[in-house]
Structures are given as C-alpha cells and as structure tokens.
Amino acid sequence: MRVTQFGEPVLKQAGKKVEVFDEALKKLSEDMFETMYAEEGIGLAAQQIDKAIQMFVIDLCVREKDIDFSYTLDGRTPPLELIMPMVMINPEIETSGEELPYEEGCLSFPGIRGNVIRPSVVRVKYQDITGQSHDLECDGIFARVILHENDHIEGTLFIERMHPDVLRPLESKLKKLKRKTRDFLKRRGG
C-alpha cells in the first residue's frame, strides 16, 4: 500500500470508531503490517494508508530489541514476541509519568526527524483485530509509539508537537515535501 504523505487531507482527519470486526478488517491489518515492514517502520496508523478509522499497528520486535521499556498486558507480562505484532483498535489512552524528549520520525514525513516531548507512561484500553478488549500499560519507546500512532488517528501530526525551536530548522524540508505531495495529488487528479 502507498503511505500517505504530509499535505494529504486524510492525515488531518480524526478516525471513525471501528464497529465491524470482519475479514476485511483483518486483511487491512495484514496489508498495513506489510506496508510498515516494507517502509522499515515500527508503527503505522490507518490514516497513513488513506483510511480515516481508529486503528494502528505496531511491531517493536523489528528494531527495538535493545531499547529498555516495560509493559503489562491484561495484568501479565508475556514475552514481547508473543504480543507483537500488535493491532490496536478504538484505543482509549491515559498518560502519566515524566514528560521526556525523544527524536521521532514518521513514514508520512520521509527525511524529517525531531525531538518531541511526550509523557513517559501510557495506559491504553483497546480492542484487537477480533474485537476482544485489552488493557495495556507501558513506558519508554512502547508508550511513545502508541502516542505517536494515536495522534495520527486523532488527526494530529508529530510536527505539531515539536517545540518551535525544533520545528524551525525543518521548515524548508516540510515545504518541499508538501509541494511534492501537492504535485502528486494534481497528477493523480485529487
């Protein structure tokens, strides 16, 4: 699947709640994972593949093995390999902990990276691909990826969370990317 780029309207759309958990949704999640892996990402939201729904996928086993984080899923801590890859649908998030900076990138913003300050602990109630409810508490990169992808399904971009001093040096790259997207949409007829 094609990853939507900065400047495409769907990236600013809040996602609709997922009501139907069927084979089409399962196929969509599989396509999202395939796209995420092809782009060498660790998370991908539905808006990034042109679908404005409350769904994102994560796989921290791809590259984040050496980064320290903790988690409990439904009151237990199974090995990470048993819970990844993970699909989160209709998430409800509570944050806590210290606010920490970390350099983030985004598949919809190729070549753009910058520090974003986010809460360090997340508790999220969500549904999996079958509609089963879960309760996850995590910190570190796990929490950060969830917050980044959840922003996408709410129509918020990571550059909107950057401090102006971080964003200012990126402005020319962002304008160039937005122009490239605008030209692509014109050629496509959108």
Automatic annotation (TrEMBL):
Residues at the active site: E149
Protein name in the entry: Peptide deformylase
InterPro entries in UniProt: Peptide_deformylase, Peptide_deformylase_sf
One GO term (biological process): translation
Positions of transmembrane segments: none
Database matches in HAMAP family: Pep_deformylase
Organism ancestry: Bacteria, Pseudomonadati, Verrucomicrobiota, Opitutia, Puniceicoccales
Co-factor binding details: Binds 1 Fe(2+) ion.
Enzyme class: hydrolase
Organism: Rubellicoccus peritrichatus
Keywords for the protein's UniProt record, in alphabetical order: Hydrolase, Iron, Metal-binding, Protein biosynthesis
